[in-house]
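Whiteboard transcription, Tuesday session. T.W. wrote the structure tokens on the left side:
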């Protein structure tokens, strides 16, 4: 059995390697350390140290996650909140990050739909519309937003 100090060093080194790939939530780090079999005391010590040193920060994680999603894989506020909750974040950091993001869901949905319209140009209008509706629903946009976007697209076509 390893000495507790050695176990703490191993846990810290493992956590740093885990965090090197991308930012992580505290819950993700906790889960991974538990999976690796580190003791509760060691995990608590390492996670506290990581938070103190700024290696783990759920508020920053939420903000970065939302920025990345808005830029590369646009989703609605509701879908982003769900994803962050699935990552183990509490409601407060999620709400703060979403408020700071100042998202215009309709503009995001329209931009996303406009990127897909050329792919669907060979389809009949009803089938094209169904595909766009499905895409926007899967990304968490409300029926109201979807309706407005489809109306804008049909007017500009």
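and on the right, the sequence the group agreed on:
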């Amino acid at each position: 059995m390893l000495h507790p100090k050695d176990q703490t060093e191993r846990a810290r080194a493992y956590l740093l390697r885990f965090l090197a790939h991308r930012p992580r939530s505290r819950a993700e780090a906790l889960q991974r350390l538990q999976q690796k079999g580190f003791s509760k005391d060691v995990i608590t010590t390492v996670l506290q140290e990581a938070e103190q040193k700024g290696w783990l920060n759920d508020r920053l994680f939420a903000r970065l996650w939302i920025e990345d999603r808005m830029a590369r894989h646009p989703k609605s506020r509701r879908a982003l909140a769900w994803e962050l909750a699935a990552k183990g974040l509490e409601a407060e950091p999620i709400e703060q990050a979403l408020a700071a993001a100042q998202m215009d869901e309709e503009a995001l949905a329209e931009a996303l739909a406009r990127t897909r319209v050329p792919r669907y140009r060979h389809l009949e209008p009803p089938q094209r519309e169904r595909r766009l509706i499905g895409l926007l629903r899967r990304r968490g946009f409300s029926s109201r937003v979807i309706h407005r976007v489809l109306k804008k697209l049909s007017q500009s076509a």
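Someone added at the bottom: The mean pLDDT is 92.
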